[in-house]
Amino acid sequence: MDDLVNITVDGLKMQVPKGTLLWEACQAHGIDIPIFCYHTKLGPVGACRTCLVEVEGMTKGPITACSTPVTDGMVVRTRSPIAQKAQRGILEFLLLNHPLDCPICDRGGECPLQDQTFAYGPGSSRYVEPKRHHVKPIVLGPTIALDRERCVLCWRCVRFTAEIAEDKSIVLLDRGDHTVVGTFQDEPYVSNFSGNVVELCPVGALTARKQRFNFRPWELQNRPSICPHCAFGCNINISVRKNDEVIRFLSRDNPEVDDSWLCDRGRFDFEFINSPQRLTAPLVRDGDAFLEVSWTEAFELISNRLRSILDESGAHALAGIAAARMTNEGLHVFKRFMRDVVGTGLVDHTPRPNLRLTPGQQQAFARLGRNLMPIAGLDDARTILLLGADPSEREPVMELRIRQAVNRHGAQLVIANPEEITLSPKASHAASYETGGLAAFIRSLTSALRRGPQGSNNDDSASALVRTYLAEGPIAVIYDASFPGTLDKGDAVLALDDFVEALRARAAVGTLPLLDAANSMGARDLDILPPDGWSSSVIDALLGPDSQVRAAILAGADLAAGAGEETLRRLNQLDLLVVQELFMTETARLADVVLPAASFAEQIGTFTNSERRVQRLHEAVPAPGVARADWEILVDLSQHFDNALPYAGARQIWDDIRRTVPAYAPVAFDSIGPRGVRIEETQVLESA
Amino acid sequence: MALLEFAQGLGVTLRNMFRPPTTIKYPEQRRVLPERERGRHVLHRYENGLERCIGCYLCAGACPADCIYIEAAENTPENRVSAGERYARVYEIDMLRCIFCGFCEEACPTGAITLEPILDISDYSRGPMIYTKDMLLEPPRNLDDLAAEASHR
Ligand code: SF4
Ligand code: SF4
Ligand code: SF4
Ligand code: SF4
Ligand code: FES
Q1: Which domains does chain B have, with CATH numbers?
Q2: S-S: A16 plus which of A25, A287, A484, A527, CB 3.0-4.6 Å?
């Protein structure tokens, strides 16, 4: 209780932890104080003075609530005449040169400046002189445009690029009333995270070039969802216009995962949902062209041809490959359709690490997977070790989490990579090894570890690294599950597993893999793999020269994209190729039947991210035409076979997943809240 | 008594038989409407020909019948449509839903849209009742027309 202090705000007595910022204390007790420059994720600067309040005994006049920690006995008045006069004055100042742009300003309707002025500002302006003008809009870079007239100089964009993304691209130029936001020497603002400044900017000064003038906020509805572009699983809101058009993705702060940031791929790559090129009806090949047919016709055709192929050549004549960006529900039904309805074990997912593991290596790989740590655990790590992994490429927002762990929580970053990566300048220690030498490098660390505290006094570089960085936990080991550049991936798996075991003997350690697609972890957990697991690939079985496969179901798996002659020839040779897709992909063009599927934004379901957090998708917009969720397609197709699948909805499928995948058993569908449910390591251990 | 009432009633009929008719032969003949009659909308231009509408959606937001549909776009030096940064690329009003309240006119910050004394809004099907921008927009006036208008005043 020593840590609590008593303060009085507007006559309300409150007890708050010592050191809390006055604004936060008031916010927590429902007292609103206007702010611009303050942002919970960026910390205080006290630049805009909007948050002035009167504090008893402060002779210097009102103080900024956003940057003043509470002290015991503080008596604060947020709506006293002095405070009101100060707030009104600051807002009048902010509006002096502010243009009357609200009708055409993209912020209009969700603009804090409008809201604050309405709530706290003066009713009218006394300023009659001509306003300051700037060229507008200024193109800051490929993604962002700037309107200097609207800028309130809150520094949020500047602080984001300085503290969070650390590219220091956006700066304040000039002094005093000439201060403007810009980039150094007008260099273009190029960043993987540029979209975040649009969301941070409290006014309409920074806009996303591809969304300018596309919408007015009041006609949008935000529907919660999960970014489908990588396995990190950032939380998003999908803004949908009245005509069911997807307008933008906004971040939906999940402190456990994205901490309110999105990368530009995640934020801006959504136009595929609205695309007029989406498939809207089932298509059946007719010579070189496709004919639109009804679902029933398509299903009858597939089931008849499939049955005759299976009767002639047995279940091994059919292979199925599902995209790892499908929902858990889609993947589960896919697996059940293949294994239980048509009876083939030849299932696989794509993209996936191209590992060829022996049984021993498979065990090592499974062990690695069980050591999974939570993403937020990076903040507690003493050392973060990147072994041949480049998060900036694969799971970009992880880069921001690592920077934050280093900057705010004092983690040491150790990078082992043959090349310089984006995070390299941030590293306390950067080790390099020859391309392909990851396993050898890891083994050198392991043997240094095993030599024990004395043995690691050797002065080779591995021992030094172990001594300096791996002596104490918690240690976060981040690896790329595809082991790029490594030829003998199985060997790398063994080396890594051995290393983690050796490390575990000394310190708390957790691993995080970099995976390929939004639901790669789900595909692993649901075992969308060939019967011998990671030792072979069905893609090889399907496309190999002496393949026995005569029919294939490819759900979102675009095998023909960028593939060679041989692949195309093999796909063409198949007696039956069924493709479930969003678009007429290169693979779909070779298909006998093309089935239109719903995108992630058009269905209910779940994704499991790379820290094994199960997160919910909601139906944000209707699917185009008669397109349906992947699982719906396969359930309906199964009605044309003897063992029809019984599912009527995503919930029911989830319950079946809980029955068949023990790790998921404790997670009820409706318990998956807005922040998802992380499946803890122990639950997975028990199930193994 | 009954007879008297009968004659009175017939009197009314007779009186009206010799009155001039109140109906007119529309559409050959047209009534002069009050200047401020709220009929069909017109989108206006500035004297220099640029469109007044800046595609701000305020009219659509104000419309209680939700019958205005807009898609905005950005002016470029090559394609300057309105005076500001932004213009309405698509502007549609569903005349079947419009209740001619004039709220759009009141909401408009640029005086781009007004309800004019135009009453002939009818068609044989619903499709054509969705008025598109080219139907609503004033034709561009050239300078000669402007001069002619000025001399008429
Ligand atoms: S930033 Fe806000 S106040 Fe300024 S023009 Fe835009 S909507 Fe209006
Ligand atoms: S551009 Fe926006 S975020 Fe940046 S200083 Fe100006 S108002 Fe703040
Ligand atoms: S890091 Fe991954 S999940 Fe997050 S926004 Fe980027 S692509 Fe999406
Ligand atoms: S008509 Fe007026 S209110 Fe409607 S979009 Fe155009 S400028 Fe805005
Ligand atoms: S919000 Fe406190 S000074 Fe800007």
Answers
A1: 35-152 (3.30.70.3270)
A2: A25
Nearest residue in chain A measured CA to CA from B73 = A213
Tell me, yes or no, whether A610 and A466 share the same domain: no
The answer to whether residue A501 is domain-embedded is yes
The 10 Å Cβ neighbour count of residue A292 is 13
Helix (H) or strand (E) holding A678: strand A677-678
CATH code: domain of residue A172 = 3.30.70.20
pTM equals 0.91
- The predicted pLDDT at position A235 comes to 97
Question: Is the confidence at residue A457, as pLDDT, over 70?
Answer: no
A85 in any annotated domain: yes
Question: In this predicted complex, what is the ipTM?
Answer: 0.81
Residues of chain B contacting residue A213, judged by C-beta atoms under 8 Å apart:
55, 72-74, 85-86
| A208 burial level (CB within 10 Å; 0-12, 13-18, 19+) | buried
Q: Identify which of A466, A478, A465, A462 has the alpha carbon closest to the alpha carbon of residue A384.
A: A478
Which pairing describes strands A412-416 and A383-387: parallel, antiparallel, or unpaired? Answer: parallel
Cα–Cα separations (whole angstroms), residue A269 to A155, A215, A583, A602, A667: 27, 17, 15, 16, 31
Number of domains in chain A: 4
Domain co-membership, A176 together with A310: no
Kindly give, in sequence order, each residue whose CB lies less than 8 Å from that of residue A172, ignoring residues fewer than 6 positions away. Answer: A153, A155, A158, A179, A180, A181, A182
Domain with A606 in it: 283-352+520-682
Mean pLDDT over A546-571 rounds to 91
Contacts of B84 in chain A (CB under 8 A): 104
- A165 & A196 share domain: yes
Q: Please answer yes or no on whether B61 and A216 come within 8 Å at the CB atom.
A: yes
In whole angstroms, what is the distance from residue A434 CA to residue A386 CA?
16
How far is it, in rounded angstroms, from Cα A520 to Cα A323? 9
- Give yes or no for a contact between A305 and A550, defined as CB atoms under 8 angstroms apart: no
Q: Which atom, in ligand 4's list, is nearest to the CA of B43?
A: 1
